[in-house]
Q: What sequence folds into this?
């Protein structure tokens, strides 16, 4: 059955739980693993907006919309530009907390840890992935629980 797997009682690496899931839940976990690889790769010379192609295979690029933690709305092109700028100057990792699936919607809870310059943050996130009839990601909502960030960190969202 899609989306059925062990309930996480402790934080786990996404790679340690992905094999326990199928369907869209597994696709979301694989998306997260690709995201981690891409953020790590972003520090290498030549990384650009074109480098996100491995992530695009999960996405209905033409209809994609992301609503972020400050209610900013991004198309796929906007999101890739944002990710490129963020990933080239950031370190990021996450731990799996919980995932559930209903119809074509997947709810993923993570603990995310990042560093941008001297600023380090740990946030609890809930990302809601909505898929189209073809199983491609069409909408992504991001919800975060975090300590307030310094004002200069908000410039990335301008």
A:
């Amino acid at each position: 059955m899609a989306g059925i797997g062990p309930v996480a009682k402790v934080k786990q690496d996404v790679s340690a739980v992905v094999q326990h899931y199928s369907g869209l839940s597994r696709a979301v976990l694989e998306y997260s693993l690709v995201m981690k690889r891409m953020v790590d790769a972003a520090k290498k010379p030549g990384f650009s907006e074109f480098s996100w192609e491995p992530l695009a295979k999960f996405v209905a690029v033409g209809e994609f919309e992301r609503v972020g933690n400050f209610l900013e709305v991004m198309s796929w092109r906007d999101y890739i530009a944002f990710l490129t700028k963020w990933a080239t100057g950031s370190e990021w990792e996450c731990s799996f907390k919980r995932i559930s699936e209903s119809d074509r919607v997947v709810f993923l809870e993570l603990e995310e840890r990042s560093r941008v310059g001297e600023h380090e943050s740990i946030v609890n996130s809930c990302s809601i992935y909505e898929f189209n009839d073809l199983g491609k990601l069409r909408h992504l909502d991001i919800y975060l629980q975090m300590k307030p960030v310094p004002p200069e960190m908000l410039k990335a969202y301008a």
About this structure: The radius of gyration is 15 Å.
